[in-house]
Amino acid sequence: MPSSSTTLLDRFMRQHRSRVDAALDRWLPKVEIQPSVLHEAMRYAVLDGGKRLRPMLVYAAGEALRAEDRVLDGPACAVELVHAYSLIHDDLPCMDNDELRRGKPTCHIAFGEATALLAGDSLQTLAFQILARDSHMTTNSSARLQMIGALAQAVGSRGMAGGQAIDLAAVGQDLNLLQLENMHIRKTGALIRASVTLGALSALEPDDAALYCLDHYAKCVGLAFQIRDDILDVEGDTETLGKSQGADKARNKPTYPSLLGVGASRAKAMELYQEAEASLSQLDEHAEILRELARYTVERIR
Amino acid sequence: MPSSSTTLLDRFMRQHRSRVDAALDRWLPKVEIQPSVLHEAMRYAVLDGGKRLRPMLVYAAGEALRAEDRVLDGPACAVELVHAYSLIHDDLPCMDNDELRRGKPTCHIAFGEATALLAGDSLQTLAFQILARDSHMTTNSSARLQMIGALAQAVGSRGMAGGQAIDLAAVGQDLNLLQLENMHIRKTGALIRASVTLGALSALEPDDAALYCLDHYAKCVGLAFQIRDDILDVEGDTETLGKSQGADKARNKPTYPSLLGVGASRAKAMELYQEAEASLSQLDEHAEILRELARYTVERIR
Fold first, then answer.
1. Which residue of A118, A144, A182 to mutate against B (max B Cβ within 10 Å)?
2. How far apart (Å, rounded) are the C-alpha atoms in residues A179 and A231?
3. B238 pLDDT exceeds 80?
4. Is B113 helix (H, G, I), strand (E, B) or coil?
5. N or C: which end of chain A has fewer CB within 10 A?
6. Number of A:B CB contacts under 8 A?
7. Low-confidence residues of chain A, pLDDT below 70?
8. Distance between CA B292 and CA B283 in Å, rounded?
């Protein structure tokens, strides 16, 4: 990777990570507000130095279509809050029963199961509240309704939550590649796609062709992201990952490396990266960060 | 209660129960759609012959301001889906650990904890999806955003979910009347209030005075409903209730009867009913059903 573009992406990610973290801090109820423990748990699960990949995609897609950062803060928060909610519920004993997340005890280990459950529930709600009420977002109410509809579709029973259900049912099962892909398209792909959509819908007058290209880009990035995740589960180390390495294998979960081998999984991720990049060809230099983010998803080490 | 008005309310509730049940059936994904088990669990928890009090309040408030039933179906579904989601999560082992709900095994008993968790999550999401996408609702996009914001505020960490957190923390504690009221205003009151608000916002041009009166009505009805619930937990029987009688007492939960005694609790509910009725005085004969619903909440036997 040329060092100039690394620097470009690094700067973008640093700036926008601060930006979204500040916005999340503003939206999350303060610990002083009752019920304190619930609000503490919500803040614990969200304000923890995550990668913020989904917010980055919101900002990058929005900027590619000339939206200002100010109108993108709300959607960026919304997708990250949904992501954080899904991690809390995913980690619960009745689901993956994980004790470590982003290098810290998971929410239910720190606050107990009941509070973790309610914190996840409340983070989902807050995401929709922001999209409905943030005063800095686009003033086009119909575009905002489209965003809410797109986010809901992405995270509901036919999207992210449905992917979780398929994932749970798949433990110990033999899935073929198509079934594995179907699961990931829902479980992680749908929210990544929605992130790009919400960014694009924040632009003043996004044309249909641009929306279509960006959506194709997001589909490729979503799947590439998951393949990289599976590879890291095999090759990463627990400390860098901030979660238990080898967890998928230990649970006998089907993964890309278990079906294709690590080499072919790597090649598939690279192909998807190239397809993502190609789908940006109609866009101008403002899409540069999107290109870099696609590369980042397949090269990241955590 | 004069028999004529009983008949009026009975007919209204029968008609609108069918109406909202049909709308819920249309919105809930069919069991044939993957993941089947998740969709089965969602339908199991929702399509079960509940009282549908919250949808009734949506229809009645909307009709009081001349909104057509067609535009009220979406909001009516949304509030019932949120209610059903909260019951599923409330019944989980880490929360109230209930095995019986509306006369049937609770969702996690029937489908397992993980599926119940995801079903609750997905029902919440579906509620917002409907408010964003239902094509029959008001075409006023800004009113729809207001509805989404109002529902989110009512069910999030400062509303319903916050009430649950306070409720959990209160088990075995001595609450005073003010603290008990604060808990119930959030736990059940907020969603009841949002139901009336969503109905009112569905009207073509709801004026602020009418919105204010209806909101005061809803606050009174919400609290009266909870007091009646507490009385029924003491005096009802498990078969009629469809849930375990005496459950609050068994858990050492503070209730109105435990603080005030049954007689004074009854009197307080009646006062609230009268206050609710009085706050409708500015409205005309179209508010008759709201009056009857207020009476129903304090006289119901389940």
1. A118
2. 18
3. no
4. helix
5. N
6. 155
7. 1-6, 237-251
8. 14
Distance from the Cα of A157 to chain B's closest Cα (Å) equals: 5
| B158 with A92: Cβ contact below 8 A | no
> Does ipTM come in above 0.90?
yes
Closest CA to A169 of A257, A253, A260: A253
Beta-carbon separation of B38 and A162 below 8 A = yes
Return the pLDDT at B157.
Answer: 98
State how far the Cα of B166 lies from the Cα of B213, in Å rounded to an integer: 28
pLDDT tens for A53-79 read 999 999 999 999 999 999 999 999 999
Q: What is the DSSP string of chain A?
A: --HHHHHHHHHHHHHHHHHHHHHHHHHSPPTTSSSHHHHHHHHHHHSS----HHHHHHHHHHHHTT--HHHHHHHHHHHHHHHHHHHHHHHSTTTT---EETTEE-HHHHH-HHHHHHHHHHHHHHHHHHHHH-TTS-S-HHHHHHHHHHHHHHHSTTTHHHHHHHHHHHTTS---HHHHHHHHIIIIIHHHHHHHHHHHHTSSS--HHHHHHHHHHHHHHHHHHHHHHHHHHHHS-HHHHSS-TTHHHHTT---HHHHH-HHHHHHHHHHHHHHHHHTTTTS-GGGHHHHHHHHHHHH---
Are A187 and A163 spatial neighbours (Cβ–Cβ below 8 Å)? Answer: yes
For the entire predicted model, the pTM comes to: 0.95
Crossing angle (nearest 10°) for helices B160-170 and B190-201: 170
Q: What tokens appear for B260 in the block?
A: 């005030």
Quick: pLDDT tens for B180-199.
999 999 999 999 999 999 99
Amino acid of residue B242: G
**Do the chains contact at A145 and B132, CB–CB below 8 Å?**
yes
- For residue A35, the distance in angstroms to the closest alpha carbon of chain B comes to 6
* Helix A69-91 and helix A190-201, axial crossing angle in degrees, nearest 10: 160
* pLDDT tens for each residue of A244-282: 666 666 667 789 999 999 999 999 999 999 999 999 998
> How many angstroms separate the CA atoms of B156 and A118, rounded?
9
Q: Which 3-32 residues of chain B touch chain A by CB within 8 A?
A: 29
State whether A157 and B114 contact (CB < 8 Å): no
Cβ A35–B149 below 8 Å, yes or no? no
Instruction: Name every residue whose Cβ is closer than 8 Å to that of residue A45 and which is 6 or more positions away in sequence.
Output: A84, A87, A88, A107, A116, A119, A120, A123
Amino acid letter for position B163: G
Angle at A237 between CA A235 and CA A242, to 5 degrees: 125
Whether chain A has a CB inside 8 Å of the CB on B152: the answer is yes
